[in-house]
Predict the structure.
Amino acid sequence: MAGATVGAAPAGPALRRAKCEGKIEMRYLFLALLLCLQNALGQTAAAVFTATDSLVVRQILDLNGKQAVPVDSAISLTAERRFAILRLTNLDIHRLPPEIGQLRFNNLEARKNNLTELPLEVNAILPLRNLLLDSNRFEHFPGKFDQVNEIYMFSLQYNRLKAVTAEDMRRAAIKSLVVLRLDYNQIDSITPELARFPISSLYVSHNRLASLPLELVGTKPLNVNFDYNRLCAIPDTLAAWISKYSLNKNWKSTQDCSTSTPRRSGALGAPPSLLRMTSCYNSLGIHLVRQVGQPLQHCR
């Protein structure tokens, strides 16, 4: 390239144009393809952390009564001072202000707090890839993510979710989801809508699931975990699907089947146990010998 310093790459918009148009040296071709692909997908690297970013992080901390917590302890930067992680774990955070949408980072770590919702402005954090929101108070999928091209990991372990509904998924408007962690909630149903995501890892252990949507059978994850639910009477196709992809091949042995099948109620009552029936029959024989005709009240 004429006028370019040997060993140095052009910079700025001119570089992007040159690379996309093929007007650069071969050694920059791979980087050019990456830049073009990122532009096409709307993916950008996290921005360099600025003084303005510091003020926003300070505002988040102060809003939650954490004036004594330094900004530096709540962020992680790369060697190039790019904003990698907003770390708010175990700080008793109860609210994230709309100003969080002004930040540009990749990972939100807000475990062990008192969050019940995310502001819609989280949708503006375009490089956002991972949301780790374990041990909060979420009852539904939080936030909206129709502008985020792909969420790699969405972790909502140890929250208060009771179901994964179609309304939840429509509200969240997630385009693509790779890893979903919903362990240790109170989930008793999952919408078939979840099957439309090419999820590679799905973790829903320690919940209350007694059934699953048949649509999941058409998906091919890398692994799933449905340990410690109530999946005792599901179709064979679903059981085979779980066995094929489960991290624990003995997942069936972890299921709680004590309440998976409703007991009969009313006049008929529950089926008597073998021990109870044997006891009644023995009593019946004794009464027939000794006191024929006396009601056997205790065998009812």
Observations:
- Confidence is low (pLDDT under 50) at residues 1-10, 18-43, 260-300.
